[in-house]
Amino acid sequence: xxxxxxxxxxxxxxxxxxxxxxxxxxxxxxxxxxxxxxxxxxxxxxxxxxxxxxxxxxxxxxxxxxxxxxxxxxxxxxxxxxxxxxxxxxxxxxxxxxxx
Length: 100
What we know:
By secondary structure, the chain is mainly α. It has helices at residues 14-35, 43-66, 72-92.
């Protein structure tokens, strides 16, 4: 028998919500590009950020499913740290030349 749970991370529909959230977050620079010349993103910028957002959120879901519920905060903080590090590297290249 399948155990019923109210945990949204267990449902596979969580990936649809992640995709929707990624799309909504990417609307912000798209709208900003219409109003100011200071925001200039190319298609590859949108693609890279979309993959990064969706990938990190999906990684969190996969890891959170594997650990006990009380450790999810630590998994979330680790995923957030990885996201911020990659974002900073792509933006300005703090430790590497990814952003250069």
